[in-house]
Amino acid sequence: MILRLEDGINPYYVQTLGLVFFPGAKFGENQEESPDVPVLSVGLSREDDGTATAKAVLSFKGKTVTSEERVSPDENFPVDRVDKIAVGRAVFGAGKQYFGHIPPWGILTGVRPSKVASELLNTGHGVLRSRQILRDEYFLNPQKAALAVSVAGTEARLCRKLDRNLCSVYISIPFCPSRCAYCSFVSYTSPRLLSLIPDYLKTLAKDLAAMFETIRELGKRVATVYIGGGTPTTLSPAQLRFLLGEVTRHVDPATLMEFTLEAGRPDTITKEKLAIAKEYGVTRISVNPQTLSDEILESIGRKHTVADFLRAYDLASSSGIRDVNVDLIAGLPGDNFGNFSAAIDRVIELAPTNLTVHTFCVKRAADILRENSGVYSLSGGDAVKCVSYSQLKTKFAGYKPYYMYRQKNTVGNLENVGYAQEGHEGMYNIFMMEELHSIFGVGAGAVTKLVDYRLPKEGRSRIVRLFTPKYPYEYLRDADRIREGTDGEPPMRDKILRFFSPETNGTST
């Protein structure tokens, strides 16, 4: 897709809008014009009172459409957001004219679709008024507006009285028994790479000790620990015991709000591993079938069956671990409403405390794109009905949506939603999505996200991200240097302490 933007227009924002109508589109300055390459031109003018007028022209396959939107600052649109809203409406209008399709999330893009709903509620708009603004001004359909406000309200209720000095720890185990066709996570499956696990755990133990010591120096209290991947239960029982033992050397699980082990793949879950998790204080695990169709499981590269999932779920539910989450994916290639609705019904019968419904999303690194470049869908097909059914069915079963996020190139531009029984919400998920406190990441591909609330809302950045090497072999090669520092870079500890020091006031590392 070719973008032609006037100065002052955020190109990344326009790209995300373009992907709403052209899922899977690629952007590049060197693309050659042709009838098969969409061209989107956007202009923007401003008036003295802050009013912005945006004009979008979309040309594709010999057809050209134009849309113009004028937005003035008011109680719903602060001055610093008027330009963005005008551009969003103009691009939305052009796409709507061309395709005759109305995206369910309107002009809301980005990972956190409930962010605007939270802002509306926080500035005194009630539930009904917030829904109306999302429908009328941001062009959300009524169901999505209601969902966004519901999630925002739940998050506010759960987090209203939390201590700002809390933090969380994410621990990366980037290994899986096999690779799913749609996966883009940093996870490794070959025997050679799996042979790195013993050395990986030794290095991880050093970094855990260093990170927990840094957290203690900051005077912060760990609220949640999340062990993710990959599939952490790819580890053997002895390896899992070693990992959990290293974690509990540094933090007492009894003091945590939540301790999550992302089991995920049913083919890695055993009674022995669950007993070890329970012994070391794990309070939340996932058992994720993604679909309850053996045919689709095989086609997407999952090396387990529906029977394997039911076996693993039975072990998990009887393990004594407080919360069990189950993931399903709507819109998988080859799936349909009948299959998906039956899966939702069956999972709800099992009564997990958490149920997460994802929408199928393919990243560029996923294997499935090599075999099927037509996996993207603008209208969403059955996925729209599947997601709507999951929202209604979970509501009637007593589950409430408590966190939500979106990704690029999802089928139908739909969302991922976590549902929970009352009192069983996954707090780490909320902390991660809403940036309520710092997340300290340990391991390959982990990201440390530092949040400092001393800063004003406007002006200087209050969030800094620190990255560890993406691949396990890079992590093993560089971990000591990152932990201890090099001639050109200070140790990770010093970067973190500097961010929170009074002298820097959180503005840099």
Number of helices: 17
**Which range does the strand content fall in?**
15-25%
Rounded radius of gyration (Å): 23 Å
Biggest sheet strand order reads: 11-12-10-9-8-7-6-5-13
Coarse shape = globular
Quick one: biggest sheet? 9 strands, mixed
Mean pLDDT: 89
Integer tally of domains? 4
Q: What structural class is derived from the secondary structure elements?
A: alpha/beta
How many runs of DSSP E, i.e. beta strands? 15
Low-confidence stretches: 365-373, 456-460
Report how far apart the termini are: 36 Å
Helix content: 25-40%
Textual characterization of the structure:
This protein folds into 4 domains: 1-98, Double Stranded RNA Binding Domain (2-Layer Sandwich), CATH 3.30.160.100; 102-161; 166-286 and 428-509, no CATH class; 323-423, Translation Initiation Factor IF3 (2-Layer Sandwich). The protein has a 9-stranded mixed sheet, sandwiched between helices. A 4-stranded mixed sheet has the order 1-2-3-4, with helices on one face. A two-stranded antiparallel ribbon has the order 14-15. Mean pLDDT is 89; it is low at 365-373 and 456-460. With 509 residues, it is an alpha/beta fold. The chain has 17 helices and 15 strands.
